């Protein structure tokens, strides 16, 4: 793949901010013209609601929403009726934590390095919460997982690719062991879906959550996948128009999934734009994207890993961290690193605790800086990033 050619599709690079080196992709990616155009088409040509009115504009919206759902389903290897549109990955995870009828007194088993989106919903849920401890190496400890996987675990809910370390858990093996134990599995796919091929049927995962704004799609669109029997049993987080067949003064008949979970008017332009994002990623190819990010991460890591003033969050081996490079510099706060990168080189990175407070506080680390890569990033940008970090170390490090 050729990132230079890809960049011509991204309006940022023709704007007054064209010099920005955008390395905050794990938060949100940029959007190509194709996505923006498809959203604008909705507002210009058929700005109506879907699934309710029968006039021609509404019919066009319904068709476009169905098409987007079909595109995402085919991209993820599942049926469209198993996909619920939400506003983000966080909402998707909450629907399960709050809406599934878990056995009283049972537990959820997560890792000890979850994003708050797969941590807070469980802290505030009705079931107990257990963690699999991650060793110093940063690599998932399968034996520790098996030790924790006993009969009281009704669900294993884990981050597929970690937003701080970039490591990916062995999902297939985790799912097989959980199913043998009679436990369900949900994966937080916020950082895996944008970066590698996911096949939900092959994985045999029970529930899977992700956000489209981390994969070239519009802000505020998420997806929850769940198997049929789970969608049947699970209660929606919200109720109202669009999710019901009939109601009387005392009762309600819910529509079958996915409508049961999609009450109120949806983010139509966002969902249509999400379909365009899926088209765009499919044209590039997910294997190409994965290779591209690993190559770029290797450029950054090789340049910086032997510098005594830099601490890369484990694992140091770049091929285990996909497109994520998280680090600290001795004597400099991570927010200062991010601010200096922005000031002197127009490099946009993320700093702080990355919504993973327990990970940092349990290890006594006061946050970190994080560069995260995507399809439009180039080798030259990675070299400039490494140059900038070396300059910061030389100039400001203790
Ligand atoms: C691993 C992980 N899970 C969940 C989320 C939450 O995603 P959203 O804010 O789109 O709901 C993020 C966001 O960065 C993430 O990195």
From TrEMBL:
Give the reactions, separated by semicolons, that this protein catalyses. Answer: (sulfur carrier)-H + L-cysteine = (sulfur carrier)-SH + L-alanine
Which EC class does it fall in? transferase
Task: Mention any Pfam family matching this sequence.
Answer: Aminotran_5
Name the CDD domains for this protein.
SufS_like (cd06453)
* Alphabetical GO biological process terms: cysteine metabolic process
Ranges in a coiled coil: none
Task: Look up the EC number in the record and give it.
Answer: 2.8.1.7
What UniProt keywords apply to this chain's record, in alphabetical order? Lyase, Pyridoxal phosphate, Transferase
Domain Aminotransferase class V: residue ranges? 21-382
Membrane-traversing stretches: none
Which GO molecular-function terms appear in the entry?
cysteine desulfurase activity; lyase activity; pyridoxal phosphate binding
This protein's cofactor list reads:
pyridoxal 5'-phosphate
Sequence similarity? Belongs to the class-V pyridoxal-phosphate-dependent aminotransferase family. Csd subfamily.
Entry protein name: cysteine desulfurase
Gene source species: Candidatus Methanomassiliicoccus intestinalis
Biological classification of the source: Archaea, Methanobacteriati, Thermoplasmatota, Thermoplasmata, Methanomassiliicoccales
């Amino acid at each position: 793949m050729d990132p230079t050619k890809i960049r011509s599709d991204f309006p940022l690079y023709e704007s007054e901010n064209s010099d920005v080196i955008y390395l905050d992709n794990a938060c949100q990616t940029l959007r190509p013209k194709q996505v923006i155009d498809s959203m604008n088409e909705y507002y210009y040509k058929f700005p109506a609601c879907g699934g309710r009115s029968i006039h021609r504009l509404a019919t066009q919206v319904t068709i476009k929403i169905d098409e987007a759902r079909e595109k995402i389903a085919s991209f993820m290897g599942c049926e469209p009726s198993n996909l619920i549109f939400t506003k983000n990955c966080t909402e998707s995870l909450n629907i399960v934590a709050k809406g599934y009828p878990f056995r009283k007194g049972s537990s959820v088993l997560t890792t000890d390095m979850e994003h708050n989106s797969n941590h807070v919903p469980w802290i505030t849920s009705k079931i107990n919460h257990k963690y699999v401890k991650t060793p110093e190496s940063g690599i998932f400890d399968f034996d520790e997982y098996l030790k924790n996987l006993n009969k009281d675990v009704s669900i294993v809910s884990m981050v597929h690719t970690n937003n701080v370390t970039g490591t990916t858990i062995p999902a297939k093996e985790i799912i097989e062991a959980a199913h043998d134990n009679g436990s369900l599995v949900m994966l937080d796919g916020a950082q895996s879906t944008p970066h590698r091929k996911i096949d939900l049927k092959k994985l045999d995962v029970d529930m899977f959550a992700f956000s489209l704004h981390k994969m070239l799609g519009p802000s505020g669109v998420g997806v929850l996948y769940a198997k049929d029997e789970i969608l049947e049993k699970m209660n929606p987080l919200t109720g109202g128009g669009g999710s019901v067949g009939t109601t009387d003064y005392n009762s309600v008949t819910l529509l079958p999934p996915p409508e049961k979970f999609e009450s109120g008017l949806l983010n139509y332009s966002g969902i249509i734009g999400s379909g365009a994002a899926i088209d765009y990623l499919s044209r590039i190819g997910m294997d190409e994207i994965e290779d591209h990010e690993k190559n770029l991460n290797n450029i950054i890591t090789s340049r910086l890993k032997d510098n005594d003033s830099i601490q890369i969050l484990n694992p140091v081996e770049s091929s285990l961290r996909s497109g994520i490079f998280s680090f600290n510099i001795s004597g400099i706060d991570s927010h200062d690193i991010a601010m200096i990168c922005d000031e002197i080189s127009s490099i946009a990175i993320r700093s702080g605790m990355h919504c993973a407070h327990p990970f940092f506080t349990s290890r006594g680390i006061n946050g970190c800086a994080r560069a995260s890569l995507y399809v439009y990033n180039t080798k030259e940008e990675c070299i400039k990033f490494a140059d900038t970090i070396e300059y910061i170390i030389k100039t400001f490090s203790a």
